[in-house]
Amino acid sequence: MFKRILIANRGEIAIRVMRACRELGIETVAVYSEADARALHVRFADRAVCIGPAPATKSYLHIPAIISAAEITAAEAIHPGYGFLSENAEFARLCKKCGVTFIGPSPEAMRAWGDKVTARSNALRFGLPLLQGSEVLRDAKHAISEAHRIGFPVIIKASGGGGGRGMRIVRSESEVESAFASARHEAETGFKNPDVYLEKFVERPRHIEFQVLADQHGGVWTLGERECSMQRRHQKVIEEAPSPAMTPEKRHAVGEVIRRAILETGYRSLGTLEFIMDETGELSFLEMNTRVQVEHPVTEAVTGLDLVQLQIRAAAGEKLDLPDTRPWNMRGHSIECRINAEDPRTFAPWPGLITEYYSPGGHGVRVDSGVYGGWRVPAHYDSLLAKLIVHAPTRAEAIARMRRALDEFIVGGIRTNIELHKRLLEDREMLEGTMTTRTIERLLSEG
What we know:
Elements: E1 4-7, H1 11-23, E2 27-33, H2 40-44, E3 47-52, H3 63-72, E4 77-79, H4 89-97, E5 101-102, H5 107-114, H6 116-126, H7 140-150, E6 154-158, E7 168-170, H8 173-191, E8 196-200, E9 206-214, E10 220-232, E11 235-241, H9 248-265, E12 270-277, E13 283-289, H10 296-303, H11 307-315, E14 333-340, E15 352-353, E16 356-358, E17 365-369, E18 376-377, E19 384-392, H12 395-408, E20 410-412, H13 418-424, H14 428-432, H15 439-445
Parallel strand pairs: 1-2, 1-4, 2-3, 4-5
Antiparallel strand pairs: 6-7, 6-8, 9-10, 9-12, 10-11, 11-14, 12-13, 14-19, 15-18, 16-20, 17-19
Helix pairs in contact: 4-5, 5-6, 7-8
């Protein structure tokens, strides 16, 4: 097992990884920008190294500074968390070259599954259902031709990224050229990869993802699915496990295909395969995220597993001693709400000083957060303040518990989306479990 791990991230995920390390007896190294000098993850770590000024490109995305921090602190491994460099195959390659273990898949596996076009080829090879799509688009003329072949509406998507960036919905030929140019620009800016491709656009889909885990000894586990349909502009807002749209039979069938694909491609780490479900209940593979997900706590709640500890143990070469349950037996129901520093009406980020902070508690309530009262939320990074997670025997009880916990959550001095979450948990589609990726959009249009 590693003696010391550097966490190449900030905020709640950095603290989440530190907690896993502490329970495994591993020392932690935090890295931080000048804007994060008083951040909680810096105070929680055993050691901390400043890696640059506030802009992420000069700190959390600056590979030489992060690897240098690992070298001067004698860290044996680097955990990238999510976002930033977590799906950067070149960073994983350089870690290996410098003798530092990257806690995640190999650079080769990351390229095979992290690039969306290549991942579609893998999915097709192993029999995962796919939406009709294209290869990497050469230019706007190629995009127009492929859009006509597939049939409007289509969506242009970045090949090397996610989180809603580099995505444009196109409903007619007249929209293709400008959408292609803006998607390429956003992909280049956000992911240093301008490649984009086309995919058939489903008007009212559900977003469902499957959690996988693999060690270096041929062990592969599918750990059930998460429902992530409650999102706005491709950004997830509420997640839950299991999905109210899934059946045990479908969970088992899809899980077996995923298990074979992961095993035969040599993938060794945590990973998440994302699908959309159309109006008829059919699943289609979208992409794979080769890292720990923001919403991983809901899977932890219903499986009883510490996914981050298992990810670290797999990276250290341990043979994971988990039961071969297909599908994994999930206990109860879990829901996660992302608490963001943002205006609840316009969704504009709202940085500033937190004058008061109280997080909820009680039976079945978990809060993963990186903030505290008296801390100033910087304007340079993602607006996520905390993740509020509840677990209960049934979905109805989980919703009731989440409502109670949201009522207890106090964040003073800045605006947050707590009131939006309360409204979402009263919506008919959410209560009935029939939500789609358009539910929040519909609710906002109703005022």
